[in-house]
Design goal:
Elements lengths: L12 H19 L2 H25 L5 E3 L4 E3 L1 H22 L21 H6 L9 H17 L3 H18 L7 H33 L4 H11 L3 H17 L8 H8 L2 H26 L8 H19 L5 H21 L8 H25 L2 E3 L2 E2 L9 H4 L1 H15 L5 H15 L3 H27 L8 E2 L4 H19 L2 H10 L5
Helix pairs in contact: 1-2, 1-5, 2-3, 2-5, 3-5, 3-11, 3-14, 3-19, 5-6, 5-11, 6-7, 6-11, 7-8, 7-9, 7-10, 9-11, 10-11, 10-13, 11-13, 11-14, 12-13, 12-18, 13-14, 13-17, 13-18, 14-16, 14-17, 14-19, 14-20, 16-18, 16-19, 17-18, 17-19
Length: 513
Amino acid sequence: MIHAPDLSLAALAPLLFVFVAACVGVLVEAFGPREHRHAVQLAVAMVGTLGAFVCTLLLAGTQEITAGGALAVDGAALFLQATIAGLGALALLLFAERALDPARSAFVASAAVPVGSPRDRELATSTQVQTEIYPLATFAIGGMMLFTAANDLLVMFVALEVLSLPLYLISGMSRRRRLLSQEAAVKYFLLGAFASAFFLYGLALVYGATGSVRLADIRSAAVAGGGDVLLLLGLGLLVVGLLFKASVAPFHSWTPDVYQGAPTPVTAFMAACTKVAAFGAILRLLYVAFGTSEWTWRPLIYGVAIVSMIVGAVLGLTQTDLKRMLAYSSIAHAGFLLTGVIGLSVAGGGGSGLAATMFYLLTYGLTTIGAFAVLTLVRDGDGEAGHLSQWAGLASRSPVTAAVMALFLLALAGIPLTAGFTAKFAVFRAAIESGAWPLAVVALLASAVAAFFYLRVIVLMYFSQPAADGPTVGVPGLPTTIVLALTATATLALGIVPGAVLDLADRAAIFVG
């Protein structure tokens, strides 16, 4: 006889808010009048994400396993879900910026029209936009939140697909440079399929070695069986699938092309929210399923952290496109985050490394969304001005825009009195406490190298002469103004007075399973 699993609706409230909003968005898309659809879709998506954010705050302190043991609602899951919901709401505001202005909208009027066709050229000046982006993005946010709470490898795989499939679609919906956008979407889809296959094969091997897909059962089998070859192979394949989503080298090849080709609001959404979700799943898998036998995964994480930091820092120096530069910045930051993951093996539970990594994910997400929000304002005749040479002398054209961008770049570089410095200090300290001081030394050197390409942009903005035909700086609408105000304020506040949020992350650094 099959029994229905026990469900705690209160514990699942954040997920229910987001997925119900996504389903309502699908119904609005099917039955709502086109002239009112955009405003309704934005309202529904914002209610879903902000409602989920409030629910995570109300559930603070909850430690519960629900849905028949498939989902774990604990401190780490709630902190990461709140981060994803908050960052997702900011990204949705960027989606809405200038949505009815054909000269400024980031999204196509109809994604199904062949590129370069007469109908495509006609729609280039249309006031219509693809309002499907809102339910798709909301489904992706729901998948990300589910990903961080999955206590079962099958649920984790389902969440991986739920968050990935909408991203593949909206990556190809850029209004300008359509071919580049569609190429990015196809690359993302094909490489994402390989990553999903790695994860699924790893799941099968782990199940074959342990007889279970539940993380707690896998941990028990790992303790009893030691270094079983089948289990280690399965762990390796699982981690490869997750590292792909986190943009960790050498599984990063999709990142620069997709960041450059996708609409900039989508790039901001992926860069911030997907990284939080992927690292949330990595933390849960390594700590809950294999935390008592870190020798099985520590060398793997140690190696890819070094490779990711070196690849991101060195190749970032060679980039002349700002979005590609931020893509390699993301790869380097993934390596910095892995230094915090190494800190999970601290004797007594790994809370220091877990709290530091969660705080880093929050600060990185806020800073990255802010940087991409500024990027949407600097434009030339072909859309956003992405080439570095076009940012020369920006401070003389728009001092406020240059100052805000400089703040975000300094935070990404880890300069003191910004959130980036506090976050890097936390993860490096966690790595040193766990005995991985050589990794911390490599991270410090990589940070110094990476700081060069951030400072290069600041030098261009402030100490170079602007070109006569340089780009224009648009006046941000209300959505982008809200995003910039919140992200800039948070970047400064978390650098100057980070204590409250650090304490919150430390209290939330709990996994149940």
